Amino acid sequence: MANTYHQIYIQTVFAVKYRKATIEKSWRPKLMAVIGNLINETGCKTIIVNGVHDHVHCFFGLNPALSVSDIIKSAKSKSSKWINEKGLCPSRFEWQKGYGGFSYSRSHLEYVYRYIQNQEKRHHKQTFKEEYLKLLERFGIEFDEKYLFDDLI
Q1: Which of 26, 92, 128, 146 has a CA-to-CA distance to 86 between 20 and 30 Å?
Q2: What is the pLDDT of residue 53?
Q3: Does residue 3 sit within a domain?
Q4: Separation of first and last alpha carbons in the chain
Q5: What DSSP assignment string belongs to 95-126?
Q6: CA dihedral sign, ordered 103, 14, 132, 125
Q7: What's the CATH number where 76 sits?
Q8: pLDDT tens, 28-49?
Q9: Is residue 37 part of a domain?
Q10: Which domain does 71 fall in, by range?
Q11: Distance of CA 97 to CAs 13, 30, 78, Å?
Q12: Average model confidence (pLDDT) for the chain?
């Protein structure tokens, strides 16, 4: 076959270390743009990046030559470096280790886009922990809750 064709959509979710409310509303849109650009730089196609004070959702078309793990590792390390170099937080900014990754079909694009777009509204009613546990359960991912938030203080 002369070319490779693919259609792989991934949503990832990752949190601020210790779930401290450090992503300020004043610079949050710029951070989301930075993360989206970092994902695009890997050869993937960002659909939407959005979040609230303590976590971020990324939805993108995956380049099958890359691993989700490498993409998110790069986005997290470079975005935390950006935050720290800009001096946006009074103390050192860090993302929690790990992330959640979920795959979707093309028929779910609009639903997932709206879900991520409405994060602020959603989190008036639901905590990050509640949201994350529901995602894991909805996707049938086995987990031990004692290891999900091991650096929570």
Answers
A1: 128
A2: 94
A3: no
A4: 53
A5: BPS--EEEEE-GGGHHHHHHHHHTHHHHTTTS
A6: negative
A7: 3.30.70.1290
A8: 999 999 999 999 999 999 999 9
A9: yes
A10: 9-147
A11: 11, 22, 14
A12: 93
